[in-house]
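Notes from hallway chat w/ T.B., transcribed later so I don't forget. T.B. wanted the structure written out for a chain they're using in a teaching module, and asked if we could keep both sequence and structure tokens in one place. Agreed to drop them here.
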Amino acid sequence: STCSASMVALHEACVVIDRGYCVSAIVGGTNPILRPSCTTMMSEQGVLSPDGSCKTFSTAANRYTRGEAA
């Protein structure tokens, strides 16, 4: 489903650790932003933060910023 690949990978890692198949796991995910038209569309819809900053748990949060971190 949309945007769930990383969570599915995390769930699978938890399952194999819980079952004793391994003691640790590395889980990762990405959402490559390859087409500028997607960002343009989201900007036109007013979804993206006007200042381009991510303020996840702040009261100053002002919408969404596209990006990835590792």
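Follow-up for T.B.: Residues 5-18 form the longest helix (14 residues). Might be a good example for the class.
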